[in-house]
């Protein structure tokens, strides 16, 4: 019951953040130079790439947030504030996306700075997500059907291993911008497909899933 | 129960996207030239036309999304991700609308590019909608009161025939910008009136409708 | 149950529209001239006035929307589309507010155009609201506890008399911009206080109110 | 039941306002000068500071709004309008934040004006919050489990003492901008930690909390 409002607020923030992503796609109006519209759209490919990666990454966070909160029956102030911390990072994703879209093709060091900022925000998001998960895993008294010990270990492993790809993408940003973009894209695709067709992970057990 | 949160998030995205459409209507402040305000507003008629078509097209998608999800009782990860795909296109509609508003009266090839982009995004939205519908039609085990076989054929026909107008509008864009605008507007009006006064289509049966 | 999603979507649109109003308050950053910040803020008084009037007008529409929908038990496609029409006007209020804020102090004819646009959008909103109300009044079969005949006449009177102030404000705009602003402000204040302290009007009977 | 829609609308406004805060973080695109991206990001530290303080302050208001509304069972028009007053101030926070971010490092009097505006909006928010709380405290007939007299006194003390830090920050703004920023930040942190680990305050008793 209290969870409803926590979820409604979080869903609102996710929905606004995911929709603001598309503001970067905007092209300049006519009369701002001699570039044809289809050429402008063509030059904006980094904005489309950044948009798609960020859209599905926020989408995946939302799906996992959905699952993670599903078993929580008592919402405490600590959980509310940890969730706010996660949302504070989610809300910064459109900013990081917009910066990457603008500087993706810039030479050293601007392209690298933008890529590091992008991977860095995703890494912060991954850390904030792990904090919320860890808190829930440690408070069985507020959760319906807490996980058995083995599942708990495996869930923790998954949260902590989840830090690796974005950390790698962050470090790689100083050497290769395209490599950072590819790592963040592949990480997103991995999380969509692996969890979709694999048997439900322990943390998914609370919710009817394929 | 799980559907609630899927719908809440989708409603949030639809609501933000539909509200952002109106940002294009903004005129320039005083002191930016000698054009009178009513002349500026007059010159912005393409923005008003594009706003109205997009507003009601997103509105129709929302109404149909409402009906389509109504019978779903188990939300799986695949459905969540197919729904995200649909939302990724919905979120791009304000961008396509804004581009059409800016370039509607531009000569070849800019006006045509903008019209093709506009019709193209609507076609992608139509395809994404058909994908979600097709998935629901194929998973009776997650749906309350699945459709009988005849109704299913007719529902599929409607989804696949629904691709035609936007595909036509896309092709026509390369020859005539006004024709594309008229086709997208008429398609929207058709979907509002036909479904309003006709007896409920099979897919509408789940929900109390006129 | 179906009403829930209609209300959730409408609430989302109202919430985004009411929050976008404040974007007009933004001042220019430092280095854009020699105007001190407090002088800039002082010169922006039309933006603050327009913001407050529009905020509380949208707020009043939302409160009344809340009350009007409260007795509806079956949501039909016609009601969904009439509601969309109302939302299409609500979404245009930030645009009209922003234009008024920019041109409130401009000489004839720009100030007058902005004031006419502002009052005109409020009048359209009032008409759309009356259309939704009229439809609900005519469809007792979809409403819990339909109004008795006398209450119905009085409710209709209130909807149709409600057109007058904004229509007046629209006509007055061509003669006096401040008069238009005052009429729209007083109309809002009237609706806040009259309905708050008066005994509930017939249409309010469905909902526990003071 | 009616409270649901009041909360849904408020949550929407909080969610949009909190997400718009991050729009200030945007940097300029390439080609707008010779500043490197990491230098631009470094120069934007006031925007990051202002973003974090405002994000968590809005978050705290949302958490407290959540708790305050939790015991309300009958929503009257007066409560709806007092709540709208609170939301009107919340919606102005992104504007005050953006102004502070732009002028934080400006010399007298611009930095001081921005700091006074920032603390002033927070003070108004605190007053609006106290008004809503006071109204709820005075209307036991609309509240489930009204507070006992002692708890009521202590709750009132907390609302009225809560005015002090922002009032101080407002006055201090005319002498020291950094002091204002520190006071608003510390006030936020105080409210996060004190209420999290302290035994529930009387007003929190309605809701399961740590």
Protein traits:
homotetramer, 210 residues, 71% helix, 0% strand
Describe this structure in words.
The structure is a homotetramer of 210-residue chains. By secondary structure, the first copy, chain A, is mainly alpha-helical. Helices cover 71% and strands 0% of the residues of chain A. Chain A has one domain (2-24, 46-204). Chain A contains nine helices and no strands. Mean pLDDT of chain A is 84; it is low at 196-210. Chains in contact: A-B, A-C, A-D, B-C, B-D, C-D. The B-C interface holds B 7-8, 11-12, 14-16, 18-23, 25-27, 29-30, 36-38, 41, 52, 55-56, 59, 62-63, 66, 70, 192, 195-196, 207-210 and C 2, 5, 8-9, 12-13, 15-17, 20, 74-78, 80-81, 84, 87-88, 91-92, 94-95, 98-99, 102-103, 106, 109-110, 113-114, 117.
Radius of gyration of chain A: 19 Å
Distance between the termini of chain A: 26 Å
Largest sheet descriptor of chain A: none
Low-confidence stretches of chain A: 196-210
- Largest interface (C-beta under 8 Å): A-B, 37 and 34 residues
Overall shape of chain A:
elongated
Percent strand of chain A equals under 5%
Quickly count the helices of chain A.
9
What's the domain count of chain A?
1
Helix content of chain A: over 70%
Specify the structural class of chain A. Answer: mainly alpha
Oligomer: homotetramer
Q: Report the average pLDDT across residues of chain A.
A: 84
Question: Topology as H/E string of chain A?
Answer: HHHHHHHHH
Number-wise, the strands of chain A total 0
């Amino acid at each position: 019951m209290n969870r409803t409002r926590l979820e409604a607020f979080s869903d609102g923030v996710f929905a606004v953040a995911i929709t603001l992503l598309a503001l970067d796609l905007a092209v300049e109006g006519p009369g701002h130079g001699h570039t044809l519209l289809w050429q402008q759209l063509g030059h904006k490919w980094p904005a489309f790439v950044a948009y798609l990666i960020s859209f599905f990454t926020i989408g995946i966070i939302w799906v996992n947030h959905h699952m993670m909160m599903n078993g929580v029956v008592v919402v405490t102030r600590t959980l509310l504030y940890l969730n706010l911390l996660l949302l504070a990072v989610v809300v910064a994703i459109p900013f990081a996306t917009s910066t990457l879209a603008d500087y993706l093709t810039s030479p050293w060091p601007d392209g690298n700075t933008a890529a590091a900022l992008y991977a860095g925000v995703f890494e912060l998001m991954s850390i904030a997500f792990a904090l919320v998960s860890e808190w829930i895993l440690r408070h069985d008294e507020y959760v319906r059907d807490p996980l058995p010990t083995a599942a708990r270990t495996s869930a923790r492993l998954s949260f902590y291993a989840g830090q690796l790809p974005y950390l790698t993408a962050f470090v790689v940003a100083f050497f290769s911008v395209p490599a950072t973009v590819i790592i963040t894209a592949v990480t997103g695709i991995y999380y969509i497909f692996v969890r979709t067709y694999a048997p439900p992970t322990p943390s998914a057990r609370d919710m009817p899933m394929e």
